Amino acid sequence: MKQQLNIVYRNWGISDRFNDGTIELNKNLNKYPKLKKAILAHEIGHTDQPGFTRKDFLHDISSPDKIDNFAMMTFILKHPSSLVQFLPFYYHKQRGMVFDANMIIVYSVIGIISLIGVVIGFLI
Asked: Less packed terminus of the chain by CB within 10 Å, N or C?
């Protein structure tokens, strides 16, 4: 049975979906209704399962919800506190430490590729 979703507005990040059915959105998204609608549709598509799930990961990398990249970049530049979204973990007053598995994967891949580049650089 699907639980009812609860939307909470905050001053930082862009958006997050938590397994208790809460979607947190940056309050400044109200100034960008098309972007907000696309982001909300994306977040609704996530599961309520705790932790990292294959379904949520696939949803993030191949989401059918088309988010306008130009509008997203405009939003990020005008609201720098939204950059918190790209941290692999952060502290949330109500939830404690929050880990974003997708960002952990992204930064791990970047780190591994960088390390390989450094090793190759030393070998040449």
From this structure: N
